[in-house]
Q: What sequence folds into this?
């Protein structure tokens, strides 16, 4: 393909994306395909001869689009949002155009320096403690990782290596392998699966401590666990707290956890993959409590900052701890400017060697939307979640499971778990909206997350109508099934149907006051 053809293909692709996103509501959020559908549609080998791009683009419509789950649809309410925006898409395209892998300053000075700039912009925008900025006097700074999982793993690995180093002084009687065998880490049983996975990858067990009844991990629980483990000869290394747990968007008590970590010389990392977006708002200022005492934290721009996947911001109080832990050199990686304090070689801050020019899409997004645009985006998600919450609270057949937090509402139909399961199954079969279940203390519930590139109040109304009408249908079917199981006599049946019709109100339902 030459530049002329690229111009045509590229412009057609931009039109394709704009049409797709502009008309996203035309698609049901979930595809109808069955597993293996694409394997059956595509040839078993790549084409021997080049094919025209027009055919490829038309195949994207024909075979790829039917297998897409439409994450940018406002009818996506599963997981947490995966954001995107037009400027971010352009940024991604331009970064691919440059085709660099900026693992050190010399590999593309703009890649490193723009990352330093946008990470400091973001730290200020989120009102993080000053010591996390590259421009501060200290050794702190921010880096863009691919995902929260990578950020957590980097923190876990760095904390582990620091612990091994310091054990040389505190436990001189132990060999390094004995030390490694005694290391232990902590998080809450509400933390994301990536935390447990980081422990597996780092070969260091992570104890999932019980969150309290509000699903919050508190210092007392951590203190008790550390005391017991130290008494058993183990060496506590790191606690990974969460601000905005995946299940219910609960916020761990960072201040009390920091007290314990400080006293026990344990690294404190905060996973704010989703809720970090709230740091930007004055009305959510309490979310930032205790952040001045943490060693590292991460926030996914690809969740809440209109930057597309992948883009996970990570800040370190002392970046030297990561650099010292991961610094592996080769002669071909050396350059004459390395080690200069304002110019990090980000390859030491991450797992892979090569790194994408993610800062470009961040910079373009921040500039074209502005700080107020980003704050408005977070505020809009909160307002839409509050709208949904009011629907839940106004229908006595449902109950809230946790307080509405940012763009997430956790709720369930009253009654046993079967109601939740059946309701979700119906919704999934109809494919009009997408939600996922979660569970706490044996109670299953539904998570309604505000997602999509441009959700509106009418989308929330659409989702609610779908949910409540499917509950009506489920309850009617359940009630009929109950009668069918025990039809004692004709008058019982008549009475049952009369009651059902009365309670259903001819398609409406009882509302709480
Ligand atoms: N942490 C939390 C609290 C999350 O909710 C998620 C994903 O939703 C993750 C971590 C994992 O994020 P990533 O896919 O960026 O690794």
A:
């Amino acid at each position: 393909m030459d530049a002329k053809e690229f111009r045509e293909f590229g412009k057609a692709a931009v039109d394709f994306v704009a049409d797709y996103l502009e008309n996203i509501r035309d698609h049901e959020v979930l595809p109808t395909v069955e597993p293996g559908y694409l394997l059956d549609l595509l040839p078993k080998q790549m084409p021997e001869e080049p094919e025209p791009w027009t055919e490829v683009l038309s195949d994207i419509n024909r075979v790829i689009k039917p297998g897409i789950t439409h994450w940018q649809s406002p009818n996506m309410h599963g997981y947490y949002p995966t954001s995107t925006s037009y400027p971010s898409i352009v940024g991604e395209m331009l970064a691919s155009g440059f085709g660099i892998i900026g693992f050190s300053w010399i590999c593309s000075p703009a890649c490193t320096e723009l990352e330093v700039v946008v990470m400091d912009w973001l730290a200020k925008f989120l009102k993080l403690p000053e010591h996390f900025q590259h421009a501060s006097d200290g050794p702190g700074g921010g880096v863009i990782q691919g995902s929260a999982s990578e950020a957590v793993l980097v923190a876990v690995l760095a904390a582990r290596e620091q612990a091994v180093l310091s054990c040389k002084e505190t436990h001189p009687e132990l060999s390094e392998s004995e030390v490694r065998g005694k290391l232990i880490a902590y998080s809450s049983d509400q933390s994301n699966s990536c935390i447990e996975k980081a422990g597996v990858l780092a070969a260091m067990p992570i104890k999932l401590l019980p969150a309290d009844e509000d699903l919050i991990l508190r210092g007392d629980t951590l203190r008790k666990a550390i005391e017991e483990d130290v008494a058993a000869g183990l060496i506590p290394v790191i606690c990974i707290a969460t601000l905005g747990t995946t299940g219910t968007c609960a916020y761990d008590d960072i201040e009390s956890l920091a007290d314990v970590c400080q006293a026990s010389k344990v690294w404190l990392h905060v996973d704010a993959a989703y809720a970090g977006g709230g740091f930007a708002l004055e009305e959510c200022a309490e979310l930032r409590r205790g952040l001045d005492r943490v060693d590292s934290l991460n926030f996914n721009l690809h969740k809440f900052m209109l930057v597309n996947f992948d883009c996970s911001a990570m800040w370190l109080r002392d970046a030297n701890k990561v650099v010292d832990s991961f610094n592996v050199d080769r002669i071909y990686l050396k350059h004459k400017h390395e080690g200069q304090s304002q110019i990090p070689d980000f390859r030491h801050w991450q797992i892979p060697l090569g790194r994408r020019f993610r800062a470009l899409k961040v910079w373009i997004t921040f500039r074209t939307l502005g700080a107020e645009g980003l704050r408005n985006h977070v505020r809009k998600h909160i307002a839409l979640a509050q709208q949904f919450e009011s629907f839940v609270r106004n229908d006595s057949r449902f109950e809230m499971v946790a307080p509405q937090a940012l763009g997430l509402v956790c709720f369930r139909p009253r009654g046993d778990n079967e109601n939740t399961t059946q309701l979700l199954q119906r919704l999934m079969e109809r494919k009009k909206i997408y939600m996922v279940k979660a569970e706490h203390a044996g109670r299953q519930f539904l998570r309604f997350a505000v997602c999509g590139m441009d959700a509106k109040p009418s989308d929330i109304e659409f989702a609610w109508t779908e949910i409540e009408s499917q509950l009506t249908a489920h309850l009617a079917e359940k009630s009929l099934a109950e009668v069918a199981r025990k039809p004692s006599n004709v008058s019982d049946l008549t009475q049952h149907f009369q009651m059902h019709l009365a309670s259903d109100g001819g398609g409406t339902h009882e509302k709480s006051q």
User: Anything to note?
Assistant: The pocket of pyridoxal-5'-phosphate is lined by residues 79-80, 147-149, 192, 194, 242, 244-246, 271, 273-274, 300, 312 (CB under 6 Å). The two ends are 66 Å apart (CA to CA). Confidence is low (pLDDT under 50) at residues 503-513. Residues 17 and 33 are 22 Å apart (CA to CA).
